[in-house]
Structure formats: structure tokens, C-alpha cells
## 1
Amino acid sequence: MIDKKDKQILNILQENCRLSNAEIARRMNMVPSAILERVRKLEKKGFISGYELRLDPKALGLSLTVITLVKTEENVGSTRIGLDLARIPEIQEVYFTAGEYSYMVKARIRDTDALTSLLQKMGAVSGIRDTRTTFVLDTIKESAGLNLDSLESGTKK
């Protein structure tokens, strides 16, 4: 279960997971050892699944974001093709979806030549029948953070 203080810790860590326990404790008017204990419990219970560095794709020359819908010939419920797509290095996210398309894939690439290469890699995956790719013109919001305010206190895991 998480309480109000756990939510506050999680919100602070979502903003900046590099903050020290002492800084979090200062913000919450608690002692660092209590923060450390709560964070360890949150990790152990699986509420915190890891810590990740976020790179600026444009600064690295990956200025083109594409979203590709993938239609497959897989059996219903199979995710083999999704697992194959996830192994392609340019692909950042793979979502198994319901509807006309089986997967939604997000990739960051340099340019249209790199898109051609990516689509060739995707086309080499057995069972892909069709794709529909959309270019992202501008990212309005992109976040891995979750809205914890919508959770009731006492959330169980």
C-alpha cells in the first residue's frame, strides 16, 4: 500500500530521480533515513521499477519521430511479431493493440533515408502484412510520469 507520503516521494522522483534522499527529506520535512526506507520499500513492492536517463534525441541528430501502425498475420493474442519489432534498435516503443492494426511502434531516426532503412528492417519480420507510418511534426507532451493524484490512498500491489 502507498500513502500520501509515498505518493509525494514518487512525484518528486518522477520530476528528478537524481535527487538525494537528503534533498527529498528536506522538501518533505522528514529525515533522510525515513526517505531511504520508504524508497526501498517502494522498490521492493515494485512501484518503482527502475531509473532511466532521458537523452535529447534532437541533440543526438535523431530529429525525426515516426509512429508506425503494423498490421500482421499473427494468431489472435500472439505477440511474437511485437517481440521481433522490439529488437530493432531504432524502435523505442512497441504497443500491442486491439483493432485493425496489431501494433503501434514509435521510433526516433535521423531522416527519411533512415526511415527507409527502418521500414526495410520491419518488412523483414515474418508475418507483417502492412504498415502505416506517420511523421511527428512536433512533440507537445512526452512523459513517462504517471498521475498519482488520480490514485486512491492505500493502493495495493
## 2
Amino acid sequence: MPTFAENSNSMKIANIDLGPRPVLLAPMEDVTDPAFRLMCKQFGADMVYTEFVSADALIRSVSKTEQKLNISDAERPVAIQIYGRDVDTMVQAAKIVEQARPDIIDLNFGCPVKRVAGKGAGAGMLQNIPLMLDITRSVVNAVKTPVTVKTRLGWDANSKIIVTLAEQLQDCGIQALTIHGRTRAQMYTGEADWTLIGETKQNPRIHIPIIGNGDITTPQRAKECFDRYGVDAIMIGRASFGRPWIFKEVKHYLETGEELPPLSAEWRLNVLRQEVIDSVNLLDERRGILHVRRHLAASPLFKGIPNFRETRIRMLRAETQAELFQIFEEIEPMLIY
């Protein structure tokens, strides 16, 4: 496959300028709340996405869902992502979302979890392409905000339809397409296949930006995805759990070709402390700590500490900020610098 010359041109979605080789924070349920988005932004994420928002719940005015529309100017450009399974509901939801003034409205046709895809929404739409296109076209026509789509390669290994689907979605008027390099059947297992993402990007009929997503866990891999597949932007998801500084590492490598000098364990632990504080401030102590546990459980900072299992269990059972920070203090001398 050809290697693509480094592109110094800015990447734009509609009139939103994201600069050259932008790195985006993926929308993730129970992860990309306002506090985490802002933190990733401060570390260099060029655009952030909300947790996904149920169109059904939004038009029923479910308050927990409405809270997901809270965005701040400090995190711009920011996209609000919605999912649903019928045209009218998605159009109504998109109009409600537009009132929150996001920079972009993103349509989720990629979520593989059973409670979403099993009901025909998210990646479930990959089994009903006419409806997916009808929803997309109708939402684009109903709002003035730029509309984008996030989806997968196809429903399963026998229906990797993304190259054709990308053209069809582009014809509906979307301004950019994000492709996760797996099928719905794969969920999050196996390796992301970037070859079809690259093929979609190289299709001469495609003129909207193509954003690649899946298994970008290192700065080197981020650069390789730009160089080998020619994508306009990359999106980082699970690799940011407990490691929001990955954006700092990736941006530095893309800009200089060199690895960022190692961030001290003390600095990284302080970032996690701040993540806990932000989460508690955003929600309350009990819910904030529950929310941040996923990040602590996944953080690479604690890998390599000998006999860590019991401490890890205590950390993930802690119910107060004071208790959690006491465990952090015990851990600090053991961290690998």
C-alpha cells in the first residue's frame, strides 16, 4: 500500500478547522462526560464527542439524557452524538440537540452492544441500510448544524459494505464519516482492520473527510494510520481510559516525529487524582467515584506493580475520595518511574 506524504493542510468538517492530522476523542458511554472531555482537550484532543444520547429518551424529556447535552465553550469544537431507530424520532432529537449548540451532530450507526444494536439502533442499522440512509438524509435536511456519521465495516465478516455505504452516506449530505475498523459481530474483539478504512478514503468518489478509529493505542500507531491509510483524522477511544495524556503523547509524536520524554509517574498519578476530583465535582462523591472506576481499572499507570491485585481490588471498592487518595499515596512509592 502506498505511504501518504505528510499532509500539512488543515482538515475541515464543514467550516470547522481542526488543523493538520487531527486526533479526536471518541464518543463513549459512561466515559466521555464533560470533565473527561475537557481534560482530553487540555492534553491536545482536537475535537471531543459526548456520550451517546438516546433519541427516544430525549424526546420523552428524560432528565438524565438531557444532562448529556451540557457542553461548554471551553471544550469546542464538540460533537453531540445521537442514536435511534426511526426517522421521526431521530429528526425530533436532532432538532432538540441543535438547541444545545454543538459544533456537530453525529449519528451513531456503530454501537455494537445488544441493548442498542439488538433493537435495530447503533450498529443494528447495518442490517437496514435503506432506513439508515433515510434517517441520515432526513436529519441533514432538518438541521443547520453539520451532520456526521460513525459506523463500522459492516454487520459481519460476510457483509463488509463500508466502501459502498460511505458513498451512499455522502450522498445524503453528511460532512464527515468515522469508520471503526470492525464489524458489529466482532464487537471489540480481534484486531481492527484498517485496510477497508484506507480503501474508503482512496475511493475517488469520496470527497468528505474520513476519520479512522480502532486500536490506536500508541503514538507510533497513530502516525502509521495517517501514513499508510491516508485518513484525514484519527479517533482514540478505549486507549484514553485512565490515560487522557495519550493525546499529549500522540500530538507530540505527530508534530515532531519523536517520542515525548516520559511523563513521570507522579505527574500521571496527579492527573488521575484530578480526574477523580473533576468527576466528584460533576456528579457527587458516590456517583463520581463509581464513574471514574472504569478509568482507574484500565489505567496503564498501575501495570507492572508486583502483587498489586489486592490493592487494585481495594482501589476499585473505595467509596470516598479520601479513601481512594489514601490508597493512591500507598501506591505512589511502588510506581514504575
## 3
Amino acid sequence: MRLNTAILVLIIACISLSGCSSNPKKESSEQELYDAAKRSIKLRNFPLATIALEELEARFPFGKYAEQAQLDLIYARYSGLDLEGSILACDRFIRLHPQSPSVDYAYYTRGIANYGLDLGVSSQYFTMVDVSSRDPGHMRLAFKDFSELLNRFPESPYAADAQQRMIQVRNNLAQYELHAARYYIKREAFIAAANRAAYVVKNFPNTPATENALIMLVELYNSLGLDSQAADALAVLQANFPEGKGFDDEQNFVPQNVLKHSRSLISVITFGLID
């Protein structure tokens, strides 16, 4: 009995000593967190900056650095290649600070983040990567973001770059539609291909894809026996690209697409995935 009592006293004493010897960790102040985040950004340690800014935002949502910290979080996440996280930070800033003088930055960054999500990291470093075959969902969102920026803040310092990016987005969207049209041609779905090409002409005029789309329309309409539509497409092609690749030196139309394929059995049963 005396032994058990001695052991119990010893355990209590150890617990008391450990409690006295270990001081609770001091939490960083708002100023310390903000300074740590700015140092990390300056050193381009964006993951560490993101951690500090997220803690700052969580602990001091109404502090003096709250709005600036949210802007810095947008930048830190984007620069750290966390594009989806950057978009979420932009959404939050726009929702919480719609009248902020810096809200145009949030629209712009959301646009370039969506733009980057569709291009992918590889295509930013390797020019041979073909992005025309990718589903341009985020590209459309980027176009919407840039358009809203220009409509709401035409004098923004980001407006000129946003306008240039919108041109590139339109070109990419047109190329995607043209890629889809070629896919349908390969599978001899000519009506679907014609619809895609017509969509390019109607919705993306004055893009590099327009000439190819018109050439495609002339061939497809001829193949489908739609002589009137083929003549109209040819007239538009000749009016806009008289010296283009759709005509030879005597202004005769020169087809550019192979509309008939000798498809093997394996091509048919694999829906063209293996030719």
C-alpha cells in the first residue's frame, strides 16, 4: 500500500514538473504574421507566405491588414502555381470587397488563372504542345473575367493586357471548334462538322481560324449537295481571302480537306481511335 502511494505521488510530481517546465507557445501577433508573409513573398517562398496569410485571415478577419492580406494571398497562390486556390481567393475578395479600388486586380488575376488552367503548365514552357484539342471550359471563364474587367474598369492598368489576352482566347476557342470539325470530318459526320465550322465563322470572325472554316464549309456543303450554301460560303471566302490558300492563281477553288476515308474494320469498331 505504501509502495502504491509513493508511485502515485511520483507520477503527480512528474506531471507538475513537466507542466511548469513547458511554457505554452506564444501566438504571433497580426503585425508579426503580416511581416512574416511579406518576407516570404520577397524571398519568393510562396507556400510559406500562403500559410502565414491564411492564418492572418483566419485569426484577424477584421484587422487592419485583412484586405491587403487577401490581395497578397491571391498573389501568393497564383505565383506558387496554385491556380485553383488563387481563383478561390479572387472569388472571396470580389464577394467581400466589391467596391475596393483593388477589385480590378482580383478580376484580372482570376482571368489569367483560368487562362493558365486551360493552357496547362507544359504549354507555357513547351511551344509544341497543342492546346486546340483541349476542352476550353476555363478559357471561356477567362474570357468572361477579362470582359467583365474591361466593362467595369476600362481605365484599369490591367485593361490593356486583358484585351490582348481576350484576342488570344478567341483565337484558341476558334481553333478548338475547328479541331472538333476536323474530328467529325474524319468520322464522316459532315453535318456536325459543317455546324462547327459555321459556328467559327459566325462567332469568331477575324480570327486565324476563319479562313480554314470557310474553306471547310465550301467543301462540306458541296459534299452534302447544299449548292446554295456552298456558293454563299465561297463568295464570303473570296471576298475576305482572295489571295488565300483557298484559291489558285486563276482564282479556282482549291480543296484543303479530305472528306472521304477508306476506314478499316478496326477503325470502325474503335470509333476511329485506332486507324
